[in-house]
């Protein structure tokens, strides 16, 4: 059984040219691939450098930015993905090179000043390099394939041809590296001010012999033969102890091991003369230096690569190159690690070769959003044609929404009565939310031509305003929370409509408690704002209670379509009508008959083509082609068109969708819509 994740983690797949992100499942804690955060480095390298291949060796995060080292045979560089944790799609589109100077890029680390440290050079002669300028913004497509650092400083190889698999910087600014080639750990004190190519290093050397280990399980308690055996991963825990994972791919030891170096031993190493090697005495074992052996897996002896520690959960994560997966270890009980193969397996994918420098998402702003439609992931603008049908916003007369949820069947919401609005807020980010954000809900008189911020801001009397606000509990990555917003009094449904029309719209916003209302929305452009902004969602509500007399004959009204022009210019609008079946799909074979109530003045403005509208008497016209093709609207004009429909009497559950278009230059652009629901229709009932 796979170990659980405590945080999201980013994993390079050297052999596949991929980088994948995994988050803990909100229910089980098991790793779940977070597909929108994955990237194909082959495609990115091929786009920037046509014909070249990718082999991602390590990943590192600095703020919201992702850095990836590439060490393929023909393409070697450090790439930056700006804003990766906020918007991976936009980040991938703006990927660019930080440096092309080196060769065989491996591990990376950042200090608190934002300096980037990279292990680079040929396999047999790797060195440590400091780069200033890793915070460089996207330089544009032309410069994206060039060096984009400010200053590069070589810090040497600690006196020997080396291969530094992974790096980490401690709280005092000392840079530590695991030297896979020489079975040692190297530290450069005060790395931010270290002078180029001077021997400012100290070395913790290997201890060889019969090494007593710290394991308590008899099957793992036999002595090791050396402390370091191809050390590759390195990271600090919350106590300041330094942990090193051994790759052991040369078979130096029967069992692969993880090593703990206490802060006391680190201090001893740092106190040595510059350029010196300190080999600890045997008395340091199980005192200031601990070796923990781990069991062989079902495939073979494990080869541990990159190491990352969740310092809050005190858990280490490491990629395992032999099984092409991962492992996780609880550091507090490391001595009692189980000898059972697979007991610490972690269901992530890693590939040999490559050091597998993992990136643990230690801090990440969440990406809270409300779905515009069932396919909305919150990470890119939605392109669906009906953003007024969000499945994550619905009203209830009673406070039972937490047991109902999207797709349930709502009662009608009575006018001028207390009610509730439920909003499901999801987290598309790799980090949890803080539980301080809030959701705000606004109502607006239904219209196929709604704008923003009016009527939602209450600036048009009787046309809309704030419903209420509520705090959003902490949302786990990949999880969601259902938020209940109290509605003190629903609007009077008689206003501008047939009596008790019950047709209105809801707009939900995820925001901070101090932010302005509807932040980021483009004035006037409601549909574009909703599609572009993950934190906004729009829900058109119209419920006819199941069991009411069916809408037959055709002169029974279904509701009122409100077409509007909130621009300062004359526009030409069009109206289309669709029948939706109970499964939530447009019924292309519909035999429904749509009837519109048009005043003589309004009819005179409709540029009807032959056979588009058939008079039925009493101001009613059947829309033979399910709509109106050409209707001029004046600036600020709102018109009401009564809608009736005749359907098969056996059809008890359906909806009618009315869509307003703007007609210009022979093209139609969707402006908005209303949805009238009868009975029970999947995804459309509140």
Structure write-up:
The structure is a single chain. This protein has 686 residues and is mainly β. It has six helices and 46 strands.
Shape: elongated
Class from secondary-structure proportions: mainly beta
What are the segments in which pLDDT stays under 50 over at least 5 consecutive residues? 403-411, 494-500, 544-554
Let me know the average pLDDT. Answer: 88
* Strand portion: 35-45%
User: Span between N and C termini?
Assistant: 40 Å
**DSSP strand count:** 46
At CATH level 2, the architecture of the largest domain is 6 Propeller
Q: How much helicity do the residues have? A: under 10%
CATH class membership of the largest domain? Mainly Beta
Name given to the CATH homologous superfamily of the largest domain: TolB, C-terminal domain
Name the assembly state: single chain
How many helices in DSSP terms?
Answer: 6
Largest sheet: 5 strands, antiparallel
The CATH topology of the largest domain corresponds to Neuraminidase
Count of all domains: 3
As a whole number of angstroms, the C-alpha radius of gyration is 32 Å
Structural key phrases:
single chain, 686 residues, Neuraminidase, Immunoglobulin-like, 5-stranded antiparallel beta sheet, 5-stranded mixed beta sheet, 6 helices, 46 strands, elongated
What's the structural blueprint in terms of helices and strands?
Blueprint: E1 9-13, E2 18-24, E3 31-33, E4 39-40, H1 41-48, E5 56-62, E6 65-71, E7 76-81, H2 88-93, E8 96-99, E9 108-110, E10 116-122, E11 125-132, E12 151-156, E13 164-169, E14 175-179, E15 184-188, E16 202-204, E17 208-211, E18 224-226, E19 231-236, E20 242-246, E21 257-261, H3 263-270, E22 277-278, E23 289-293, E24 304-310, E25 315-320, E26 325-330, E27 345-346, E28 359-360, E29 368-369, E30 393-396, H4 401-404, E31 419-427, E32 438-445, E33 464-471, E34 480-487, E35 504-511, H5 526-532, E36 536-541, E37 543-544, E38 557-564, E39 571-580, E40 593-597, H6 600-605, E41 613-617, E42 620-623, E43 627-633, E44 638-646, E45 654-664, E46 667-678
Parallel strand pairs: 16-22, 37-46
Antiparallel strand pairs: 1-2, 1-28, 2-3, 2-4, 5-6, 6-7, 7-8, 9-10, 10-11, 11-12, 13-14, 14-15, 15-16, 17-18, 19-20, 20-21, 21-23, 24-25, 25-26, 26-27, 29-31, 30-31, 31-34, 32-33, 32-35, 35-36, 38-44, 39-43, 39-45, 40-42, 40-44, 41-42, 45-46
């Amino acid at each position: 059984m796979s170990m659980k994740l405590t945080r999201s983690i980013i994993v390079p797949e050297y052999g596949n040219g991929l980088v994948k992100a995994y988050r803990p499942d909100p229910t089980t804690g098991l790793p779940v691939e977070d597909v929108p955060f994955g990237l194909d480095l082959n495609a990115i390298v091929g786009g920037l450098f046509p014909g070249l291949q990718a082999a991602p060796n390590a990943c590192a995060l600095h703020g919201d930015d992702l850095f990836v080292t590439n060490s393929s045979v023909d393409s070697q560089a450090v790439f930056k993905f700006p804003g990766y944790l906020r918007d991976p799609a936009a980040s991938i589109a703006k990927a660019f090179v930080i440096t092309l100077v080196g060769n065989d890029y491996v591990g990376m680390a950042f200090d608190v000043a934002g300096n980037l440290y990279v292990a680079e050079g040929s396999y047999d002669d790797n060195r440590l390099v400091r780069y200033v300028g890793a915070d460089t913004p996207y330089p544009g497509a032309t410069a994206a394939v060039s060096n984009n650092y400010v200053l590069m400083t070589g810090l040497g190889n600690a006196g020997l041809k080396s291969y530094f698999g992974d790096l980490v910087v401690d709280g005092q600014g000392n840079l530590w590296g695991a030297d896979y080639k020489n079975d040692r750990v190297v530290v450069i004190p005060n790395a931010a001010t270290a002078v180029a190519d001077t021997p400012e290093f100290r070395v913790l050397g290997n201890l060889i012999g019969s090494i007593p280990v710290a394991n308590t399980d008899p099957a793992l308690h036999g002595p090791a033969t050396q402390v370091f055996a191809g050390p590759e991963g390195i990271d600090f825990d919350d106590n300041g102890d330094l942990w090193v994972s051994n790759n052991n791919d040369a078979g130096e030891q029967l069992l692969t091991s993880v090593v703990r170096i206490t802060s006391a031993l680190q201090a001893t190493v740092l106190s040595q003369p510059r350029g010196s090697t300190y080999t600890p005495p045997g008395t340091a074992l199980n005192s200031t230096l601990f070796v923990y052996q781990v069991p062989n897996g079902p495939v073979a002896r494990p080869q541990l690569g990159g190491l990352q520690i969740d310092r809050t959960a005190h858990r280490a994560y490491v990629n395992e190159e032999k099984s092409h997966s991962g492992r996780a270890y609880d550091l507090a009980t490391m001595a009692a690690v189980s000898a059972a193969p697979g007991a610490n397996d972690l269901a992530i994918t890693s590939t040999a070769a490559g050091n597998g420098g993992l990136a643990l998402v230690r801090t990440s702003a969440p990406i809270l959003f409300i779905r515009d439609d069932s396919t909305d992931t919150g990470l890119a603008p939605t392109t669906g044609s009906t953003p007024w049908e969000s499945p994550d916003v619905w009203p209830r007369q009673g406070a039972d929404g937490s047991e109902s949820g999207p797709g349930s069947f709502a009662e009608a919401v009575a006018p001028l009565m207390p009610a509730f609005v439920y909003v499901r807020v999801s987290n598309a980010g790799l980090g949890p939310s803080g539980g301080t954000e809030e959701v705000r809900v606004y109502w607006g008189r239904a219209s196929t031509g709604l704008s923003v911020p009016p009527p939602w801001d209450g600036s048009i009397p009787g046309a809309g305003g704030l419903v209420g606000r509520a705090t959003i509990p902490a949302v786990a990555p990949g999880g969601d929370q259902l938020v209940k917003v109290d509605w003190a009094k629903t609007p009077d449904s008689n206003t501008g409509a047939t009596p008790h029309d019950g047709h209105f719209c809801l707009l939900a916003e995820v925001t901070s408690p101090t932010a302005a209302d509807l932040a980021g929305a483009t004035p006037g452009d409601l549909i574009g704002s909703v599609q572009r902004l993950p934190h906004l969602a729009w829900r058109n509500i119209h419920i006819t209670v199941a069991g009411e007399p069916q809408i037959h004959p055709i002169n029974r009204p279904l509701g009122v379509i409100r077409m509007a022009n909130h621009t300062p210019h004359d526009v030409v609008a069009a109206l289309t009508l669709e029948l939706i079946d109970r499964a939530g799909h447009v019924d292309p074979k519909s035999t429904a008959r749509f009837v519109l109530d048009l005043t003589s003045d309004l009819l005179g403005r409709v540029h009807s083509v032959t056979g588009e509208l058939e008079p039925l008497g009493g101001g009613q016209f059947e829309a033979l082609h399910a709509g109106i093709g050409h209707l001029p609207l004046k600036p600020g004009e709102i018109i009401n068109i009564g809608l009736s429909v005749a359907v098969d009497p056996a059809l008890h559950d359906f909806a009618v969708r009315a869509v307003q278009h703007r007609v210009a230059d022979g093209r139609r652009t969707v402006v908005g819509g209303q949805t009238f629901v009868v009975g029970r229709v999947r995804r459309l009932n509140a």
